[in-house]
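Example for tutorial group B:
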């Protein structure tokens, strides 16, 4: 539905604002010449067998499997996610919701020939790698460009607590001497073998993580590590990966919060191992995203969700932790303040009584949280390879913005109005279009809209965009053909 009322355009009269800034007006000035970090994508995870629920483990019909995949991945009807994060299994068995390892038999020593078993990771009815291989293929077919495979732990026999759960450390890193020896090379070889199995299925893994939340000791797969200890493994892993000829790059360390990751990154830097990393990865749980890390590597927020709240589908109700607007603000601040290049949800779709999924499944019921449409505001309008550009806000109210320029020259400007009144917004500085017949479109999400196209107009380059943003709403404006 195109509702023309919410949108007017100041063609060619250029920067003459049709209202006084004192009337709840907001002016956003875009400067595409001033650029910041690259955008790599929006993403999600279906590890711990959550993916099997997309394929019907809890009663979802095949028609709804398609619908759920579209909701997460489609760039015309869904959130347009382009990054999938998979879990590399470390468990001995795979009842729900464990992830079985490709190496469950303990070798006699770190140098003994390993007994890898890819077929052993079959989840009956859902295929290899505990169901994740099929999801990976389907995701790629629907536009996912980047696969990030992350190990929550090494197999138990490589660790000083002899278990893939309950924390413990990799044998052979600083301070961890095990009677069984140094297992760093064996762990590197094991991760490599996992990628080779995917390669044989025609799937290239772009990034590999060898830790997940290495600051937490928990009763599921987990492995502790300091920055120095991560560097001790990188010293072995990086040359192993390089020698393999695979293009997979290393991610580290998926700290459970921003500061937990910052301290590990600093440890890696002090140990001189930063150059071995492809990306720096952090979660948002234990400490919130804040000032950027001091690194030239792209930084990704790779896991975050509301784990504690009751199931929340609303965009805005009272500003609580699971609402769509709350997450729109988290995502926007991550790009604008914390310099991330990608933002990943914990669970995409799943049957959960917590509030962590963007799409909640129950039997054949599919309930979409407004959080999904917060992800769509970037996933649908910014393509991997875009760069964030300067967007300066002058506002009498609570309006925040990010702007990105896509490789084709088009620009997407995400504007959140956190205030309880409608905002009049003027966007200036959009100059860089090469099309003779540009369009400007606006996509609205709030309690009544799900990334709905609310206006579409001819637009001439250099002219201002003027619009109204309803209270407690988000609009992304896009230019392009
Ligand atoms: C828009 O509203 C949200 C939710 O109330 C708030 O968090 C945000 O800071 C507001 N932004 C602006 C620019 O008013
Ligand atoms: C949308 O997805 C399709 C299918 O993957 C892809 O070919 C196309 O380039 C995408 N469009 C944008 C704007 O990202
Ligand atoms: C593993 O090493 C850590 C750090 O030295 C130590 O605290 C822990 O007790 C060790 N675990 C076992 C089971 O020995
Ligand atoms: C590993 O720890 C888990 C969780 O505490 C426990 O259930 C399991 O029996 C342990 N496995 C082994 C091989 O000790
Ligand atoms: C991790 O937690 C387990 C269970 O509470 C405990 O036995 C173990 O000592 C802890 N390990 C470390 C290294 O803290
Ligand atoms: C933001 O990240 C990029 C790498 O993606 C880096 O080159 C740049 O220096 C960072 N900027 C800030 C302010 O940290
Ligand atoms: C918001 O409303 C929910 C549902 O009624 C309630 O559980 C929660 O405590 C409220 N949160 C705040 C911050 O008021
Ligand atoms: C999904 O929504 C329906 C209808 O509102 C509700 O009855 C059901 O409990 C919801 N399911 C979940 C998993 O929240
Ligand atoms: C979803 O999970 C709940 C809680 O674990 C469970 O009771 C329910 O049966 C599950 N739904 C389906 C359809 O499996
Ligand atoms: C903007 O919105 C946020 C969240 O609702 C609020 O905390 C903040 O006070 C608001 N700021 C202004 C200037 O209204």
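The residue assignment follows.
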């Amino acid at each position: 539905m195109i509702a023309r009322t919410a949108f007017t355009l100041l063609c060619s009269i250029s920067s003459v604002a049709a209202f006084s800034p004192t009337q709840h007006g907001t002016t956003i000035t875009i400067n595409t010449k001033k650029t910041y970090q690259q955008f790599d994508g929006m993403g999600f995870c279906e590890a711990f067998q959550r993916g099997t629920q997309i394929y019907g483990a809890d009663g979802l019909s095949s028609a709804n499997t398609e619908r759920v995949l579209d909701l997460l991945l489609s760039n015309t009807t869904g959130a347009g996610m382009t990054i999938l994060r998979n879990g590399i299994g470390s468990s001995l068995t795979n009842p729900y919701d464990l992830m079985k390892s490709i190496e469950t038999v303990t070798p006699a020593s770190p140098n003994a020939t390993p007994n890898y078993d890819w077929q052993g990771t079959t989840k009956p009815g859902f295929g290899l790698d505990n169901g994740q291989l099929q999801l990976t293929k389907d995701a790629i077919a629907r536009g996912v460009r980047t696969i990030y495979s992350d190990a929550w732990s090494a197999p138990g026999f490589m660790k000083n607590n002899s278990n893939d759960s309950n924390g413990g450390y990799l044998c052979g890193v600083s301070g961890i001497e095990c009677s069984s020896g140094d297992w760093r090379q064996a762990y590197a070889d094991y991760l490599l073998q996992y990628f080779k199995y995917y390669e044989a299925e025609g799937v290239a893994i772009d990034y590999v993580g060898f830790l997940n939340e290495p600051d937490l000791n928990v009763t599921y797969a987990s492995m502790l590590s300091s920055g120095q200890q991560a560097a001790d493994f990188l010293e072995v892993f990086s040359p192993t990966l390089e020698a393999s000829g695979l293009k997979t790059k290393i991610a580290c360390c998926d700290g459970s919060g921003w500061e937990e990751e910052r301290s590990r990154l600093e440890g890696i830097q002090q140990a001189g191992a930063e150059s071995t990393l492809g990306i720096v990865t952090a979660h948002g749980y234990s400490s919130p995203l804040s000032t950027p890390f001091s690194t030239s590597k792209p930084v990704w927020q790779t896991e975050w969700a509301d784990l504690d709240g009751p199931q929340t589908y609303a965009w805005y109700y009272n500003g609580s932790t699971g609402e769509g607007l709350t997450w729109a603000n988290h995502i926007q601040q991550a790009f604008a303040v914390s310099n991330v290049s990608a933002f990943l949800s914990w669970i995409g779709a799943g049957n959960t009584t917590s509030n962590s999924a963007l799409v909640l499944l129950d039997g054949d019921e599919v309930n979409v949280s407004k959080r999904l449409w917060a992800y769509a505001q970037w996933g649908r309008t910014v393509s991997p390879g875009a760069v964030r550009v300067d967007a300066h806000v002058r506002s009498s109210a609570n309006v925040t913005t990010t702007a990105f320029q896509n490789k084709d020259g088009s620009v997407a400007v995400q504007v959140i109005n956190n205030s309880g009144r409608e905002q009049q917004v003027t966007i200036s500085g959009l100059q860089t279009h090469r099309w003779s017949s540009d369009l400007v479109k606006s996509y609205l999400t709030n309690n009544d809209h799900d990334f709905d196209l609310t206006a579409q107009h001819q637009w001439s380059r250099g002219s201002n965009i003027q619009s109204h943003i309803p209270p407690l709403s988000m609009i992304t404006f896009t230019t392009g053909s």
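The first helix runs from residue 50 to 54. Compare this with the pattern of hydrophobic and polar residues in the output above.
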